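User: I'll paste a sequence; please echo it back and then give the predicted structure.

Assistant: Echoing your sequence first, then the prediction.
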Amino acid sequence: MYVSPISYQSRYEVRTYEIDSRKRMTIPALVRLMQEAAMQNVIELRLSVWDLEPEHISWVLMRKQLRVHRLPNLGERILVMTCPAGFERLFTYRDYKVFGENEELLAASASTWLLMDTRSRSMAPIPDHILAFREKMPPPEQCLPRPGGRLPRFGEARAAKEFEVNWHDLDFNQHLNNTLYIQWLLEPLPGPVLENGRLRQLDINYRAECQWQDHVRAEVHPLEEEGQFLHRLVRTEDGKELAVARTEWG
């Protein structure tokens, strides 16, 4: 990844509470590391939720596309890098890359964000003082392809699992932490996929907030292509679709 003046990087060692039975880092743990890197980046840039609080705006993740080449193992030292990657109308982009000890690219992710008005909970324009960071962002050719394209329409659920949003599931915006969207979406997958599969790609579109004490149903639907699945989260109280995703497993 191009190292710009506003990028962030941190070295990390995979811990026991982040691995599965095969001693590999789990997908939710990997996504949490990326999220933490992004948070540390905006704190350094003084663009965190707390810095933006006087303007009544906060960052909201809209879409994330993740490609996994290899999951790191217990005790492995990894490098997590992230950088703001451009603006387009009301959207802002952020890239992530995770490297192994020999500069091996383990995973890469492109994401789309917007700013939310914390009073109306609606989309807010990007202020000029944030747009000014454009000059320090990497050139387009150094960025990952921006998330795009429509996900297939979700069909009939073949498996489902129910969840309730607990207090400790909430983030600083007081809605369901976006890493838990991914964790819950993966839970209804068939046992053999969870036990032996290797996630190659994940594409998630966040569509609505999920609040404390909401009841959520995670559904999965296999696609015709082998190893590919559609996922969605639905709020059971009103049937609102909270997120949709597509995964590919090897």
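Residues 182 and 204 are 8 Å apart (CA to CA). The chain has a mean pLDDT of 95.
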